[in-house]
Write a structure and sequence with these properties.
By secondary structure, the protein is of the alpha+beta class. The protein folds into 2 domains: 210 residues, Sandwich (Immunoglobulin-like); 39 residues. It is 30% helix and 38% strand. The strands form 3 sheets. It has a 6-stranded mixed beta sheet with strand order 2-13-12-4-7-9. Strand 12 and strand 13 form a beta hairpin. Helix 4 packs across helix 5. It is globular and about 60 Å long.
């Protein structure tokens, strides 16, 4: 039912954008039209992850690439070294304003239709992410820390390991499901959609997406981050109260 509703919403939105139901857009139409099934991902207490549908239409031939980037944040990557028989964090490197979430979807394997120079220029694929480091490091060390960053994020499920598939429908329509795990960071995201034609970008569009806490969980989150000291006191008092209640119940039993 959810997928059927999303498809109905997709066709309705495309109709509003001026795209015929199953006919190719006219010559004067925009070469690329894109939208999302939802521009807000709501994280509640029972959130276990979700999918967001990206859909649209193209005028004429071409392939589609979708790049999703999460909120930028300074990310520290640490390297362990063996000291006196123990593994300790010794060296570290900070990547400035790196995406905390990253995924790519395409109509077919990128190597089949996107030149390497274009991948590097647009930062498409984790191996081509444009990352700026802070601190002194050699080129080899930066490459090693960069691999560590990607490996860590992939382990958390926040950097996609593979390029997802975009389904191409009749009449120049396309769709893809963007997957967000339960631990998806909150904040502002961008969904970048590229129309690739003859090895170059024929058109591009960026659509915003917000991931936000809602409900009681959001209130607790904002209170904990805005009043950390007071939240800590409450947490300790609550733990003491819970311990006292459990002890009293045990004595009565």
């Amino acid at each position: 039912m959810r997928r059927a509703g999303a498809c109905v919403a997709m066709l309705g939105a495309l109709a509003c954008l001026g795209v015929g139901s199953l006919s190719l857009p006219s010559a004067r139409a925009e070469p690329l039209l894109v939208d999302l099934s939802d521009h807000l991902v709501k994280i509640t207490a029972g959130f276990v992850g979700t999918d967001v549908l990206v859909f649209g239409a193209i005028s004429g031939p071409g392939d589609i690439v979708v790049v999703v980037k999460g909120p930028a944040k300074d990310l520290i990557v640490r390297k362990k070294s063996r000291v006196a028989g123990m593994w300790l964090n010794r060296d570290s490197l900070t990547f400035v304003r790196a995406p905390t979430f990253y995924s790519v979807a395409a109509t077919r394997p990128l190597a089949e239709f996107v030149p390497l120079a274009l991948l590097q220029r647009q930062g498409i694929g984790v191996e081509h992410l444009r990352l700026e480091e802070r601190g002194a490091a050699t080129e080899g060390e930066v490459a090693e820390f960069r691999l560590g960053l990607v490996r860590n994020k992939q382990g958390e499920g926040l950097y996609a390991r593979e390029v997802a598939k975009i389904a191409v429908l009749a009449g120049g329509l396309f769709r893809a499901d963007l997957s967000f795990p339960a631990n998806v960071p909150t904040g502002a995201y961008t969904v970048e959609v590229y129309l690739i034609r003859d090895g170059d970008v024929a058109s591009a569009q960026t659509t915003p997406l917000v991931v936000s806490n809602v409900g009681v969980g959001a209130d607790v989150h904002f209170f904990a981050h805005g009043h950390a000291a007071l939240y800590g006191v409450f947490a300790v008092l609550l733990a003491l109260l819970a311990g006292w209640a459990a002890s009293a119940a045990f004595r009565r039993g």
